Structures are given as C-alpha cells and as structure tokens.
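User: Can you predict the 3D structure for this chain?
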Amino acid sequence: MRKNFVEELTWRGMLAQIMPGTEELLQKEMVTAYLGTDPTADSLHIGHLCGIMMLRHLQRCGHKPIILVGGATGMIGDPSGKSQERNLLDTDTLYHNQECIKKQVAKFLDFEAKEDNAAEMVNNYDWMREFGFLDFVREVGKHITVNYMMAKESVQQRLNGTANDGLSFTEFTYQLLQGYDFLHLYRTKGCKLQLGGNDQWGNMTTGTELIRRTLGPEAEAFALTCPLITKADGKKFGKTESGNIWLDPQRTTPYRFYQFWLNVSDEDAQRYIKIFTSLERDTIEALIEEHSQDPGRRILQKRLAEEVTVMVHSEDALRMAQEASNILFGKSTRETLQKLDEQTLLDIFEGVPSFDLSRDLLGQPAVELFARDDVKVFASKGEMRKLVQGGGVSLNKEKLEAFDRVITADDLIDGKYLLVQRGKKNYYLITVKD
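Assistant: Here is the predicted structure, written as structure tokens:
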C-alpha cells in the first residue's frame, strides 16, 4: 500500500485546493504529476521551495514527478499575481537557467531512480517552438471560449486593478499555453495531475478543461495546489530587506541562508518545519512539544535551519554556517575566521561599525592605527592602552597582547580585512584599501 500523498500534504499544511477524484486516483495507481517553474533566473529562491517539496513528497509516496521549466511561457509572462509584464529572455539564457535549476532540484528529487518513478525535467520551449500560430489557434484556441478565459480571477484582477497598463494579448493567452503544456504531457507522458501554487488554480483548471474538451470526457485530468506561504505577520515569505533568499550559494551565502531559518518566529517555525523538511510526523510533533517546554532554546528553529541548509547545500555548508554563527555569539578562533569566504565575512559583520584604512599605513603599531580620527575603534590611544593591558582587546579573534604590536599585511583576513573586538560584544571591521 503506497503512502497517501494527499494525507501527507494535509497534515503538513501544504494543501489548498484539490479537484474531486484526485485522492482516489493517487491511491489507485502510480500517477505522473508535473509542476511548472519559471526559468527567468539561474537560481530558484525559497519562494519556490513549497512546490519543489510537493514533488519530493509525491516521489516519496511512489509517484512520478516531472518538473517543467517554462522556456516558452517564460518568454511571455504569467498575469497571475503580477501587476506588470515580465522581461522576455533569449533562448541561450533560458537553457542556461534550466541547467542551473536542474542541479538545484536534483538535491530534492531522484532523477536516477531505478523504479518507474524517476524524476524528469522538461522544457515547454521544446514543443512550442515549432508550433505555428495558425496551428495553435486551430488545435487549442477553438476549445476554450473567451468567456471562460475572462472569468479567471487572475485575468479579472489585471483588468480591474489600479494599474493603467491593462493586460496584453500576450499575457491573456498564457493560460492557453499552460493548458497546452498539460495536454502535451498527458499525451506524451501519461501525466494526469498538475501541481502548483494556489495562484495557479485558474491556469491549472484551464488545462484540465482543455484535455477534457480535446480528448473527450473519459480523459481524466486533475489539479492540486499548495497555499501561498506567508509569514505569521502576513508579509511575503522569503523576502528580506536585501531581497530574495536564493538557493544558489553565490547569490545567498549558506551562512545567510542558515540565519534566515534560524531567525523565524516560533509560530512560523512550527509551520515551516512541516512544509520545508522531510521529517516524519512523530519527529516533528516531538520537536514542537520539546520547543514548547522551553521556547528560549529555539529547538524548532535550530532543527529547521539544519535540515533545510543540508538539503539545499550540504553537511559541510551547514558546519561552516554554524561556525560562522559562533564568531559573533560564541568562542571561535582566527582559523575559523580565515576559512570564511569574503561574502560570508561581510554577511556576519553586516551592521557593525566599519572603517577604511589605507594600505600604505600598515607597518605601524596597533595603537597608531586603531585610535585615528578616521578609524575610531578607540576614543584615544590612552583608552586603547588601558583596555589592551586589561586583556579586553582582540585582533582577528586573538587577544592583542601589546598595544604597540606592529600590524602588517600578514594580519589581514582575506587579504584586506582586520577584525577588532573590544570586550565581548563590540566588533569593528576595518577594510584595508590600496
């Protein structure tokens, strides 16, 4: 007996809408299901993760996941939840983005499985590029009325919204293109189910309708959506002041990624650990109970951050992120500091007082460099002498033994940084510039 996919999504809080008959189909046979993703960037961000986790759970329940990269639809733009058209991309960029996305998704799905349910990735540009406009109008357009398309909520929002740019014909046809994807995968892959975010419900039901009208009422197709994830305060999930939290470590360092999950609220941690990890129900319930006994230990946040960081990055990346976190809040060494890449170093010390120092000033005693008017780590040379003698000053996580110790290029972290610490909590980052 295969695990019940709908039940799995339900207890995890990952089910929004489901067409009648979907659960029965999933219990009856191995189902091929697809989820579309937008290839307009060469990385997914955590806003995509709920959909990817749906595919992960689907495969773990014995079904076959297909991830569709919208190469063709990415050239157009989807009006769902958008107030403006998106930029159109060229084919080289789209295929580059597709390859980058596949590498990321391969951490969640098994593309090499020996069973019949190995994951697949497809690109709708492969079947749309030779599909002429007249053929599309004849084969697809005749089955769906304008009245049906106009009734969709995503179309209505754009037509009746405050923006004056309206809805272009290009975007209006998007639901037909997405509907045709479903029809094509139904014919070629036996795909009977489409998964997606709840804002896609209108486009998804257009697909099931197109299959029924094209192939007859016996051609059964289904749709299932996950809710749009928000934070407890109602704000958009995954956005920070500095922008999206990306899966690509070049865009978002594993340290910053780890910190994002570590800093979510108790309420959000309780929801997110169900949605964004593969932990079993009894494990999660035990963690929630343990957390409630002593919320200050942040057990849920720590486990959530660990699980997601390992899944997206690696065990090594998690270890480095944890070591980096200890630099500010725990004991760490110069060696730990030197292992950091530059962006992680800057992420850790974002917001601490920082100063620039000319490289030609190196070779002078510390007291001459750190009490300058333009490098105000210490109010005066006298203050620095007193603090150093009392053992209260560190340079690059090592206690500064003498206030007149000469600072050279050998002291620089990553070739250009000095980290000065006064007492336990006061950090200063000095950038040495040519």
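Confidence is low (pLDDT under 50) at residues 81-85. Residues 174-189 form the longest helix (16 residues).
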